[in-house]
Amino acid sequence: MSTDYQQAREALGTRLRELRLSCPDGRLTGTALARRLGWSNSKVSKLELGKQTATPEDLHAWAQACGQAGAADELRSRLAGFESHIRSWRRQLVGGHKPVQDAHNEAQTRARVLRSWESSWIVGVLQTPDYARAMLSGAAALHRSPRDVDAAVRARMKRQELLYGGGRRYHIILWEPVLRSLVCPPSVLAAQLERLMGVVGMDTVELGIVPVKARLKVPPGLGFWIYGDEQVVTETWHAELWLDDADTVALYLRTWQTLRESAVHGPEAHRLIRAARRALDAG
Predict the structure, then answer these.
(1) Cα–Cα distance measured from residue 200 to residue 265, given in angstroms and rounded to the nearest whole number
(2) Fewer CB atoms near the end CB (10 Å): N or C, the chain?
């Protein structure tokens, strides 16, 4: 968890404690507040200490129980402020996967230069529908989220229109093991690799592959996108991070450039993709 995120969560906890201690009908103990809310004492304590992230419903209930309903909007605003950067999958996926895809479509529409590094899977903007379906189905199973997979696939495929609209340039780097990772059935991966071979040479896409034997100046690490020179999006198992402070963006740009130095492009990238495709037939 990022320091900025944790500091913001602790600051929200401090504000919650202030409301509890300044109730119009007299200060409440944590135990008394828990009783009013029907919560455990530990939940009240964790929220005040910044060890648990409140939901909007938690904040509304807290303000009501402290006799200060007018503070609910302020509390929700604080929560939205730091969750705009750290977007937990648990919260994002309440309404399914399509809204997440729509958010990325909108962000990519705004950018003119897009850079990506991916060490785990083929990036969404280059995926076939079947590969996207395999990835999104796996994510829905992992997060136990609503299974709107078909709608999410359609939204992800809509993003590919940006490849052909003009005025936008994609610089995408993949780690070679991604080409051989069976995160989908072999037949689906075969079609996906053929799709990638067709991408090499597109005038809107610079596709690079970092060979597994290449000398790396930094570890592969997590995948990420850089939208313009203004925003970075990366993800972990529990959350997606949307980062826009200048120092962080500059760090990711340096990281991307360092990884790009180990990549091959054009015919050499095509050769690596073709070799992975042949390996599927040989297997």
Answers:
(1) 8
(2) C
Place of tokens 């079947």: 130
Place of tokens 């990549």: 263
In the structure encoding, which two tokens stand for residue 27, read together? 């200060």
Biggest distance spanned by C-alpha atoms of the chain: 76
Nearest to 149 by CA among 93, 111, 191, 194: 93
Query: Within the chain, where are the H helices?
Result: 3-21, 30-37, 41-49, 56-65, 72-83, 89-92, 98-110, 129-143, 149-159, 186-199, 246-260, 266-282
> What's the pLDDT tens digit per position in 151-178?
999 999 999 999 988 789 999 999 999 9
Q: Which residues in 181-199 are b (16+ Cβ under 10 Å) and which e?
A: eeebeeebbebbbeebbeb
- In angstroms, what is the C-alpha Rg of the chain? 23
Q: Are 127 and 198 in contact (CB under 8 A)?
A: no
Nearest to 119 by CA among 231, 12, 221: 221
Query: Residue written as tokens 């997590």?
Result: 222
Distance, C-alpha 139 to centroid of its chain: 12
Helix (H) or strand (E) holding 172: strand 169-175
pLDDT, average across residues 262-277: 97
Q: Which residue has the tokens 């993949």?
A: 174
Q: Tell me the sheet residues that pair with 88.
A: 239
- pTM of structure: 0.75
Q: What domains appear along the chain, each with residue ranges and CATH number? A: 3-84 (1.10.260.40), 89-282 (3.30.870.10)
**Backbone φ, ψ for residue 83 (5° rounding):** -80, -10
User: Cα separation of 234 and 87, whole Å?
Assistant: 11
